Structure prediction request, 321 residues.
Amino acid sequence: MAVYTAISDDELREFISKYDLGEVIEYRGIAEGVENSNFFLRTTKNDYILTLYEKRVERKDLPFFLSLMEHLAKKKFPTPVPVRARDGTCLRALCGKPAVICSFLHGVWQKDITFKHCYQLGEAAAKLHLAASDLNFQRKNTLGPSGWLELAMNTKSRADEISRGLANFIWKEVNFLKKNWPNDLPTGIIHADLFPDNVFFLDETLSGIIDFYFACNEILAYEIAICINAWCFSHKLEFCIDRCEALIAGYNRIRPLTKAETSALPILCRGAALRFLLTRLYDVLNQKTGALVNQKDPLDYIARLQFHQQNDPNTDYLTRH
Prediction:
């Protein structure tokens, strides 16, 4: 989450008047994240999250995200639910940008991750994949291999400002993954951004998953690769095999990975690391002046990618369980 667009009191009151949400008691910007403008909203009826869509989110994709959230909620998956206005719509405009109000999920994200959190995350990822498996609409992953190439081109001239030799490092990895990316694994709808700050816990129990705005049709095991990168490294960027084993065990309890999926995890992990290296790099190089946002460090994902590069893709270094 983040805040790029300020909302005046009058604009907010006019927007809220289209809903049956009562009177506004409090609203404030949320600085965490990098993609959209988000506000905590408290009314006389309940607490909500108001989101204005910015940057990479295209308006044409919003019905996919919102329908997915509604579908998952009906399946009892712990996700925010889009709130519909009196006219029955949930997607409206505020400050000239698409905007949605969603229900508020209680819980906090974990900064001190343990294998117990990772096991529950694995279970939740598998439940999400199964719950979404009967949907017949699709969205292409715009931040897949073709998107990596575009981001690499857009950051090439300035990448070395962040780390000497980074542009060449990125291009070598883009070319490697282009030649080695799997194309015969099970696919479906994935969240594609299951970072710790998008997963809430209450009393050490997973209570909700938020921010579905990268959700897409993709290789299902790629979700696990994203989670390995996001959850299975320590603050010192040391790989934590116990977290990785727990994550995969939790996933396998609900939806067992195939042998081909398990074998592909090292390559998928390299792709996931490159994806977040590139988007973080692009965001750092194109930071909007005055935005209320916690910028993410691309150097963290250089270290993760280098770790994956040092391991033989034909070994089972991620799955010793």
Summary: Residues 259-285 form the longest helix (27 residues). The radius of gyration is 20 Å. The chain has two domains: 9-103, 115-309.
